[in-house]
């Protein structure tokens, strides 16, 4: 008699560890985790693009340095100071009485322009300066005979290459030529930045002596003046739309239009007032420690800022690349989760590379075209590429249009943040808060973890469904 075959026993062998892990952490959460890994990989090309931007910015700095060497540096004008040698009573050594103007008026007209070297640019200027004022002999001048025949006026700037040979100092109406300090001063001069003019006229104790000088200098990016006087009136003007006034104090009057600027300072008691006159064993005292620091800290001037600083704006734009990647990946992920469209991780990666190329396109196009045109063109290129790719991947126009709208909003938002430097933090914070609110509203119905299978009585000889653990979502 044949023994009936027993029913086949169910396969109760435990599932592999990887499958059990996928069941437990399957669904949208696992896909989001994998998308995050792809996002981390995108940091590598982002680092390369950021390094390239830094390299181009450094090259721009080198070009500006070359213009400083060939055209002129940032100029700082010090002085003028009247120096009178004398021999003190009872001493054979020679000493010098230094007298700063009791009143000084400086009028400077800057003529800025943009010079190019290849695709790199630098802002340079030519400045025409008029100095006028009065010297007054201090009430308590040193005892001894003042040698007025050997007296001279010192004036210092960082570079005098643009000074015409005909420049002169009018000393109480009489002309006196400006020469290198080595032609007048006995001691060694520390550089070619010091000018001297013979005074040679007695300064009476009860009467001020007037002077006037017309000068010309050339420089790069900024002009400063340290008004070395008890009272000073400084006026700087020029044709430039984005000046930045700075120094020890802001101008009392500022006028900035679309093309011109003007700043007026009236310094009644500045930081060098205590150096109105002093005695020294040296003729040249511009480099004396305390005095030099006091004058440098009292300087006034203007910087000629680039209206649209291409490299700084591009560098700031590159810092938002990670935010762009996160939001575009989230848009893909939500489209996939809510519509059932399957998007492979490789397709996420290709989209990420497209977004990453924006920084590279921006620096490449902004250098020859300017920042605004370069930004518009590079954003349009990335927008078209990413949107057409999305249409191909999802096979749905509505997804492509939605993604294009999101990306267009991101590019518009970034441009507004870059332009509004003063309120960029406020606008960026509010926009990010709004974006997070929209994301929370859209994802509130997503089930991030697979549901647990309800427990059921096992059939005789059959497997227990509850033992299967977590289901795996498609």
Description:
The structure is a single chain. The protein has two domains: 33-56 and 310-442, no CATH class; 72-304, Immunoglobulin-like (Sandwich), CATH 2.60.40. Strands 1, 2, 5, 6, 9, 10, 12, 14, 17 and 18 form a ten-stranded mixed β-sheet that branches. The protein has an eight-stranded mixed β-sheet with strand order 8-7-11-4-3-13-16-15. By secondary structure, it is α+β, with helices and mostly antiparallel strands. Helix content is 38%, strand content 26%. It is built from ten helices and 18 strands.
A few lines on this structure:
The protein has 474 residues and is α+β, with helices and mostly antiparallel strands.
Q: How many individual β-strands? A: 18
Structural class: alpha+beta
Count of domain modules: 2
CATH topology of the largest domain: Immunoglobulin-like
From N to C, what is the helix and strand string?
HHHEEEEEEEEEEEEEEEEEHEHHHHHH
What percentage of amino acids are in beta strands? 25-35%
Uncertain runs are 463-474
Q: How many helices in DSSP terms?
A: 10
Instruction: Please estimate the helix content.
Output: 25-40%
Query: What is the CATH first-level class name of the largest domain?
Result: Mainly Beta
Radius of gyration (CA) equals 37 Å
- Distance linking N and C termini: 50 Å
- Mean pLDDT across residues: 79
Question: What is the secondary structure topology, with strand pairs?
Answer:
Blueprint lengths: L16 H8 L3 H14 L1 H28 L4 E13 L6 E6 L3 E15 L2 E16 L9 E2 L5 E5 L11 E4 L2 E4 L1 E2 L13 E5 L10 E12 L1 E6 L4 E7 L4 E5 L5 E4 L4 E7 L9 E4 L8 H9 L2 E5 L5 H9 L2 H19 L5 H25 L1 H24 L2 H23 L4 H19 L32
Parallel strand pairs: 1-12, 3-13
Antiparallel strand pairs: 1-2, 1-5, 1-6, 2-17, 3-4, 4-11, 6-10, 7-8, 7-11, 9-10, 12-18, 13-16, 14-18, 15-16
Helix pairs in contact: 2-6, 2-7, 3-5, 3-7, 5-7, 6-7, 6-9, 7-8, 8-9, 9-10
